[in-house]
Amino acid sequence: MTTNFISGPDGIELARTLRGDAPPYLLMVHGWCCNSQFWAAQAEALAGDHTTVTVDLAGHGESRGTRQRWDLDRFADDVTAAARDLDGPIVLAGHSMGGAVAMLAAAKIGARVRGVVLGDTFCFDWGHIAESDQALYLAAIREDLPAMVANLVDGVAPANPNPERQKWLKAQMARPDPKVAAPAFSSLLNFDADAALAQLPEALPIHAINSPNAHPEPKRRHAGRITESVVPDTGHFLQIEKAEEFSSLLREQVGRMLAD
After folding, report:
1. Which pLDDT belongs to residue 260?
2. Cβ-count burial of 200 within 10 angstroms (0-12 exposed, 13-18 middle, 19+ buried)?
3. DSSP codes of every residue in 75-97
4. Given this model, what pLDDT does residue 183 score?
5. What is each CA distance from 50 to 22, 98, 201, in whole angstroms?
6. What pLDDT does 227 receive?
7. Which of 40, 103, 169, 188 is the most exposed place for a label (fewest CB within 10 A)?
8. Are strands 51-55 and 13-19 parallel, antiparallel or unpaired?
């Protein structure tokens, strides 16, 4: 395992960890206010099959530096930078906001990307949220980010959640600066999945590994383009809550994408 800092856009130093040193690559993108540790179980579990790559997006985790724009497109540029020296086939996997970022990054990276896996990305119907609700979310972030993420983590938890896991999730998600968290969430609230999909080749496989609570409207809207698996009895952080089951599904999908 090798962790180092690579040059990202706007002078950002992105913290990137590789497990392995040869293609193909599985590059995993974390969600809003999260970090690469949210993919730790999968990065270890699949390292025997592929070189696994995790990266802390700008403003998250151990990455260093600041910039003016904290939006999905700029985060996709971070992922593109993380993939710059990966010489070979890549599958992108993104949890929550990371799935939206992965879709945008796939268009930027181009032919090296063999597929995209979305981990419960459509927990909300992004791009279709009332402006009044958006204003409430953003006000809560600016006023008290730790309280906002604590409520969010509890709201998307599975039945009978593990208390220690809940505590860890809340602590990790309270780390970013609200000046990063608010514009990033605003960008996510307005994510246009149709436009993102239109930028990708029709033959590029996209698969969602969802919790049972994934929003029904995006599933209906994209049923002809995005295939789906469901991990039963999970909440939004399914790759942590049921790591072995999620890793097994991820391994299966990555294998199929690389075989095509």
Report:
1. 78
2. middle
3. HHHHHHHHHTT--S-EEEEEETH
4. 99
5. 8, 20, 24
6. 98
7. 40
8. antiparallel
Written as one string, the DSSP assignment of 152-181 is: HHHHTPPSS--HHHHHHHHHHHT-S-HHHH
- Asked if residue 227 lies in contact with residue 207, where contact means CB atoms within 8 angstroms, the answer is yes
- CB 53 within 8 Å of CB 3: no
Nearest to 243 by CA among 29, 37, 21, 91: 37
Specify the residue for token string 């009044």: 132
DSSP single-letter state for residue 67: -
Pairing mode, strands 113-119 and 90-95: parallel
Residues of the chain scoring pLDDT < 70 = none
The pLDDT value given to residue 96 = 98
| Tokens encoding 72 | 């999905």
Helical (H) or strand (E) element with 245: helix 243-259
Q: Say if residues 119 and 92 touch (Cβ distance below 8 Å).
A: no
The pLDDT tens digits for 25-68 are: 999 999 999 999 999 999 999 999 999 999 999 999 999 999 99
Nearest to 105 by CA among 67, 139, 63, 72: 72
> So where are the chain's domains?
2-130+191-259
pLDDT at 188: 99
pLDDT tens for each residue of 75-99: 999 999 999 999 999 999 999 999 9
pTM of the shown model: 0.97
pLDDT of the residue at 43: 98
> Whole-angstrom Cα distance, residue 94 to residue 104?
11
Classify residue 57 by its DSSP letter: P
